[in-house]
Amino acid sequence: xxxxxxxxxGFTLLELIVVVGLVAILFTVGLxxxxxxxxxxxxxxxxxxxxxxxxAVAMQVANRIVHGDAGDxxxxxxxxPMNYLTERPKNYxxxxxxxxxxxxxxxxxxxxxxxxxxxxxxxxxxxxxTLLNGPARVxxxxxxxxxxxxxxxxxxxxxxxxxxxxxxxxxxxxxLKKPKGKEQL
Length: 185
Prior knowledge:
7 strands; single chain; 1 helix
C-alpha cells in the first residue's frame, strides 16, 4: 500500500475530528433555529386566526347595523367566534362541554361551551407563558365594549351605550424568545 502524501485525498484523524466537530456545531445551531422558526410559525398562525375572527365578528356587527338590528349586537357576546368564519381552521375541534385541556392536543382550537370562551392549546409550550395553571393555552371571549354610564360594571341596555365588540384574551400571555428553563445569556 502506498503511503498518503500531502496534497492527496484522505483525512488524518485530527482533520476528521475537526470536520465532525464543525458539522455537530452547525447541526446544533441549525436545529435551534429550526425550533425557533416552528414557534414563530405557531405564534403567527394563532394570531392570524384571531385576526380573522376579529374581522368576522366586525362583519357581523356591521351586518346587523346595516339591517337595522343594532340593538341585537349584544347577543353576540360570549358566542363562538368560529361560527362567523366562512371557513374554520382544520385544527378546530368544535364546541366542547367542560373539556379537559390536557386531553386536547397542542396546536388545536376548541370552544368551551360552559364558559363561553374559545381556547387555543399551545403546542410549543416551553416558549409560552401564561397565568393559567395546567397545559399551556390561551382563552379568548367576545366581549361587549360599552360606555358604563352608571358605573355598575356591567352592561345595562337602557342606561349604557354599546360601542361594539372585541375578541379579548381572558388572561395575559406572551410568547418567549428562549424556551423556559434555558439560561438567558
